[in-house]
Amino acid sequence: MSRLSSRRSFLGHAAAGFSTLALPALARAQPVTEPPPKAAQIPGQVEHPVTEPAAIEVNARPIPAFEPRDRSRVRFGSLEYRSGLVLTSPYRGFGGLSGIRFLDAKGERFVAISDQGAWFTGRIRYEGRAMAGLDDVEAAPMLGADGRPITDKRLWYDTESIALDGSLVYVGLERVNQLMRFDFAKGFTRARGEVLPLPPAARKLPYNKGLEALVVVPKGQPLAGTLIALSERGLDADGNLIAFLVGGPSPGQFSVRRTEKFDISDAVILPSGELLILERKFSWFTGVNIRIRSIPLKAIAPGALVDGPALFNADLGHEIDNMEGIDAHVTSEGDTVLTLVSDDNFSLLQRTLLLQFTLVE
């Protein structure tokens, strides 16, 4: 068996099991269309808590090619591969990364969230245009209004989505369908969060299929000042994905056309006025597939059904895992760079990947 075939076989089994080493048999019994199970499946359980701020070590191994079977290939749909890293850490609480946002225009300083109620901040180190490692990484617990970690509350750990609006940071909690806001001007990751109201329909999203992506529409764009909240797999009467416009000039609900059984993982707004949606699907037969769709912001309005073309598709023949986060920045050369991060579910069978692509078209 070739090295590539061996790798694909291993990844296929990994996709089929993902967190099987960490989960009881009952939690592993899922339909074939279900996405990979999360490590913390027992209600209220936090298996890898971050209880206090800590500087941590994160090691990085470069990924020289996005497609191992053709290392010379760099173009994938509308994206061009720039670089990638496999991240590991001796710190037990590192992993489960579900979202990432850059804190500067250069694509260096970042804040990421884990699905265990934790912040991870740091800086990406570059060598030329390629990522070389992470520096100054710190872990910290998300704090509630009482100053205690939000994970002290039952089920308040599945933090899956993040959006920035200046110093304000919005975080969506999937299992309890809650929205929190933190002001990083008041202590950075030590800031206390407050719960914000959501539309009643958002509070009724399916358990573990709730708020998966948040973006704040910037000034100068249609719907400026609106928080767009997209569900992972909350479906409307026609089987399309439910999303919400929170605040802003036209609050309400809209839908994203669901095709090929893809679910939403994250989203980002480009300066061009495009909403890029990162999607994934999983089956026991094909493993993990991901794609990125582009939807014009001007098409989004209360009651609308929006759709857009796929700019990028990848499967287990590529260097992917359970990709859950996406952000974008523009380099000094004018390149629009997309950064993707994966959630390893704290499983020995999965990896924490950080990937970067240039948007070519």
Describe this structure in words.
- With 361 residues, the protein is mainly β.
- 6% of the residues lie in helices and 43% in strands.
- The protein has helices at residues 3-17, 25-28, 200-203; strands spanning 54-55, 59-62, 75-76, 79-88, 97-102, 109-114, 118-127, 130-141, 159-165, 168-173, 178-183, 194-196, 211-216, 227-235, 241-246, 252-256, 263-269, 274-283, 287-296, 305-306, 310-314, 323-330, 336-342, 352-359.
- The strands form 5 sheets. Strands 2, 3, 4, 22, 23 and 24 form a 6-stranded antiparallel sheet that branches. Strands 1-8-7-6-5 form a 5-stranded antiparallel sheet, with no helix packed on it. A 5-stranded mixed sheet has the order 13-14-15-16-20, with no helix packed on it.
- Mean pLDDT is 89; it is low at 1-44.
What are the SSEs and their pairings?
Elements: H1 3-17, H2 25-28, E1 54-55, E2 59-62, E3 75-76, E4 79-88, E5 97-102, E6 109-114, E7 118-127, E8 130-141, E9 159-165, E10 168-173, E11 178-183, E12 194-196, H3 200-203, E13 211-216, E14 227-235, E15 241-246, E16 252-256, E17 263-269, E18 274-283, E19 287-296, E20 305-306, E21 310-314, E22 323-330, E23 336-342, E24 352-359
Parallel strand pairs: 16-20
Antiparallel strand pairs: 1-8, 2-4, 3-4, 4-24, 5-6, 6-7, 7-8, 9-10, 10-11, 11-12, 13-14, 14-15, 15-16, 17-18, 18-19, 19-21, 22-23, 23-24
